Automatic annotation (TrEMBL):
Region Disordered, annotated ranges: 381-401
Native species: Bacillus songklensis
Known EC number: 2.4.99.28
Cellular location(s): Membrane
Name used for this protein in its record: Probable peptidoglycan glycosyltransferase FtsW
Membrane topology of the entry: Multi-pass membrane protein
Length: 401
């Protein structure tokens, strides 16, 4: 059975994931070795060793989700979404505060971020619900009001931490899954109008309640004119520009970054691509971007090939999650959009993010196995039918002629 399963896996996705994880581990070692000692007062290989440990855990989950039939999650999803909601609520009581946000549970030496798992949780929940409502998917009230209500509740819990970056990602993922659920153009525009109405209502409320504060708005001024605000709001972006610019085409060489010596905050997390640009140059950045693009493209193409709406929508959500997360991270460090604190998939330091990504990609690889198996089975059945038809139409020879 296992031999037959492993025959149909898409190994190109697995190889791309392994390459990204290997690059990430090397760059975390390089980017964090100085700040580990000077800023955090820990050994120079502290973050490198922790990421190695998380990689072992992440690959165990990857292998598990890779071999488990993805439709088994239909029985687990309701319990999973309740657990995620409960964890987000309990954060306000038991959560660990860091960087003005109460987003983590501190479990001994490890930190767990429930909002990261909410991204996958909302993908799985919407895929389950909308795949079961295909018969009336264009009835907006009947098909979408319940899922939208739960999505908004989870968004509210994440925003209250506060974690605007993750909340934005959850919103985009949910919008992508709903938009690809099989709705017609009329229902799609209803979704768009509903989303715009929420934004138009939410912004004034955020301003009145103080959630949209001057500190948060300063991220926009920092992104629009970082050199004017180089001492405060634009500090990170200016140093990111310096790292990217000094790397050039070939880079300064692995381990030779200057900006990681305390000039570039969060050099091993949010701004790790700036260090890659400085040390490995254009070619290093291009390799990472091509690998990320390959994974996203393969996942979305798999969504198109999958005949099962549940599996297809899972791929849409996971492909969107990785793609939009990469865009937001790279957009922040290049000044295209305000900095939101979103890590670069598979590359940035972070246990919760890495485990979530590997679980997600394990599901994608499992779906690829079933898609390839069904395709092979159809081809085999088609060949057998042609062979049977040929035999049936053949005229037997008359031995007396």
């Amino acid at each position: 059975m296992f031999k037959r399963m492993f025959r149909y896996y898409d190994y190109s996705i697995i190889i791309a994931i392994l390459c990204l994880c290997a690059i990430g581990l090397v760059m975390i070692y390089s980017a964090s070795m100085v700040t580990s000692v000077t800023r955090y007062d820990v050994p120079y290989d502290y973050f490198y060793n922790r990421q190695k440990a998380w990689l072992v855990v992440a690959f165990l989950f990857f292998f598990l989700t890779m071999i488990l039939p993805y439709r088994i999650y239909l029985k687990i999803i309701p319990y999973g979404i309740v657990t995620i909601v409960a964890a987000l609520i309990f954060l306000f009581v038991l959560g660990h505060t860091a960087g003005n946000a109460k987003s983590w549970f501190q479990l001994g030496p490890a930190n767990l971020q429930p909002a990261e798992f909410a991204k996958l949780g909302i993908t799985m929940y919407l895929a389950m619900v909308l795949s079961k409502r295909q018969e009336y998917i264009n009835n907006f009230r009947q098909a979408f009001l319940g899922p939208i209500g739960l999505t908004l509740f989870i968004l509210g819990l994440v925003l209250a931490q506060p974690d605007f970056g993750t909340a934005m990602l959850i919103g985009v993922i949910a919008a992508a899954v709903m938009s690809c659920s099989g709705i017609n153009l009329k229902s799609f525009f209803k979704l768009v109008r509903f989303g715009l109405a929420l934004v138009l209502v939410g912004l004034p409320i955020g301003k009145l309640t103080g959630y949209v504060s001057e500190e948060r708005l300063s991220r926009f001024t920092g992104a629009s004119d970082p050199f004017k605000h180089a001492e405060d709001a634009g500090y990170q972006l200016v140093n990111s520009y310096l790292a990217i610019g000094s790397g050039g085409v070939k880079g300064l060489g692995l381990g030779e970054s200057i900006q990681k010596y305390g000039y570039l905050p969060e050099s091993h997390t949010d701004f790790i691509m700036a260090v890659i640009a400085e040390e490995l140059g254009f070619f290093g950045v291009a390799v990472v971007l091509l690998l990320l693009f390959f994974i996203v493209a393969k996942t979305l193409l798999l969504a198109k090939k999958c005949d099962d709406p549940f599996g297809s929508l899972i791929c849409v959500g996971i492909g969107t999650m990785i793609g939009i997360q990469a865009f937001v991270n790279l957009g922040g460090l290049t000044g295209l959009i305000p900095i939101t604190g979103v890590p670069l998939p598979f590359i940035s330091y972070g246990g919760s993010s890495l485990v979530l990504l590997m679980i997600s990609m394990g599901m994608v690889v499992n779906i690829s196995m079933f898609v390839n198996y069904r395709k092979d089975k159809k081809q085999t059945n088609s060949q057998q039918q042609k062979l049977t038809a040929t035999k049936g139409n053949s005229v037997p020879l008359n031995p007396n002629v």
